[in-house]
Amino acid sequence: MVLQAEQGQIQIHTENIFPIIKKAVYSGHEVFLRELVSNGVDAISKRRMAAMAGDCSEGSEGRISIRIDREANTLTISDNGIGMTADEVKRYINQVAFSSAEDFLEKYKSEDDAIIGHFGLGFYSSFMVAKQVELVTLSAREGSEAAASPAPM
Q1: In this structure, is residue 7 part of a structural domain?
Q2: In a domain, 97, yes or no
């Protein structure tokens, strides 16, 4: 018997998969902050590694800030890491469980422990506490333009 392989794409409806991710991966609502700060730490590490390779400017000392606006009922977490292009947002954010870490580590031949996140799920922890999530990013690479994902995601 000969089996013929076919390639295809799996489609996931986010309204169905996020409850599963929440139950299976995250034990409590508070972990979202840890996950998003970890993403910022990774972005800063990636910028440092890319700068050493000459792919972007080094920038200032790594910084992560957390702002709470009680009137607007928003929480803003920002960092001065490597950022993403619009294509990277489509590739790494718009696909659930697809991390940029492996691609990045392969390109820069870095230590595996230089990047915290490897599974591509940390960003989605924000949906545990938010009805809407907006991502605004600017790649540190020369000539990049800001990219944003429309809220709600």
Answers
A1: no
A2: yes
> How far is the CA of 25 from the CAs of 16, 32, 52, 88, in angstroms?
15, 11, 34, 24
Q: Which domain holds residue 68?
A: 14-149
Is position 2 within any domain? no
- pLDDT at residue 56 above 80? yes
What is the DSSP secondary structure assignment for residue 12, as one 8-state letter?
A: -
pTM for this structure? 0.70
In 3-146, beta strands by DSSP E: 64-69, 74-79, 135-137
pLDDT grade, residue 100 (50/70/90)?
low
pLDDT, mean over the chain: 76
Residue 8 belongs to some domain of the structure: no
